Amino acid sequence: MSVDIDHWTRRLAALAEEHRVPGATLGILRVTPDSDEVAEAAHGLLSLRTGVETTTDSLFQIGSISKVWTATLVMQLVDEGRLNLDAPLLDVLPELRLRDAEVTKRLTMRHLLTHTSGIDGDIMTDTGRGDDCLEKYAAGLADAAQNHPLAATWSYCNSGYSLAGRVIEKLTGGTWDAAVRKRISTPLGLEHTVTLPEDALLFRTAVGHLSEDGRNVLAPVWGIPRSAGPAGAVVASAADLLRFARMHLCGGLAADGTRVLSEAGVTAMAAHQAELPDKHTLGDSWGLGWERMGWGGHRLIGHDGNTIGQAAFLRLLPEQGIAVALLTNGGNGRALYEQLYREVFDDLAGVPVPHPLGPPDEPVEVDVAPYVGVYERASIRQEVLVGDNGPVLRVSLTGPLAKVLQEQDVDYPMVAVAPDLFVCQDPETGNWIPATFYQLPSGGRYLHFGARATPRGA
């Protein structure tokens, strides 16, 4: 049965309007032994200021889905015998210096790809627009805090992917951007994929929108620093993102049969590598670059992406050869994703998409006193307080990220789900975000919120 794109165009429009998403594109891919089916839909505006209409060939920032592209580049280098995932990075970057000398000696590429390095993950230092931006960024990590002991837990780490990008540069002799073009975009025939803003200007390209007093306003800046490129700077159409996904569904082959990645590399990227302390926010485990999700007994891989006012969602169901991409530029993109994907995967594959964790039907009594305190890492300060109406998680941006986003502190009301698990309601969107409290064997106490492990202060 073919994909009814007229139906999904209507559903995209209706749900985007419901969730105040200015513009969005949806792509659905189904690969069969005989042929590929690709269906695309577009809705709304790329910019509320200019009124430019969204089309299916429009480019959006795919954000952290870019990490899967970076991981793919790494695995190509593994295929070529130029990189060992478990060898010290010092073998490739002898100049590498981290604050912890022992971590410097033991850090491997596997730690970076699986978010287990412990390097403070949201260091957004802008090291300029030059081709040496990642070299400068890597040197700056000498001052980075160690968020948790090496391999002791899982915490989402943008910094680690920028460092992985620098490794790619050392081994390829060019920039990360050039490696994406030469090693992924060209063999896959991606004509609507870029990594630099000056190239994005040549296409119909979305701008981000932030919420202000219940309305969408243009984001203050368009993109993230170039030094964060390997963690989140790919800009693409939904169709190009699906062509990338197709390669992973088809054992590393492009549509024309070109070998982009070995079948072993594809399998390794999707395989279980690390457990997540919080199994409600993203997936239940992590691969080499990919999120891993279990939906109703079915194994999916995918990734989300969030930049300044833009959000992207990619899910692959390998057992049925299905991939779905959704790109948005503001509003409640996550709520749109949850509703739309629930309908798409039920209709096309009979696979149930789990509902997000929310407050329990019956109140759960938990003593919050042991969790009251300050939890802090680079760019983020989180404080658990007891307010007049119950516990509250106050989140503050600090450092360079605060200067870019210029956001005020946010108070998230907390509702207990289990003795060590709460859900916190976003006052702007109403979305519920899990907060997990746990302790490492070494004694360190952590709050896992927003996919990051944040250590408790003294």
TrEMBL record:
Domain of life according to the entry: Bacteria
InterPro entries linked: AmpC-like (IPR050491), Beta-lactam-related (IPR001466), Beta-lactam/transpept-like (IPR012338)
Domain Beta-lactamase-related: 10-333
Gene3D superfamilies: DD-peptidase/beta-lactamase superfamily
Membrane spanning residue stretches: none
Sections of the chain in a coiled coil: none
A Pfam family it matches: Beta-lactamase
Record-given protein name: Beta-lactamase family protein
Organism: Micromonospora parastrephiae
Lineage: Bacteria, Bacillati, Actinomycetota, Actinomycetes, Micromonosporales
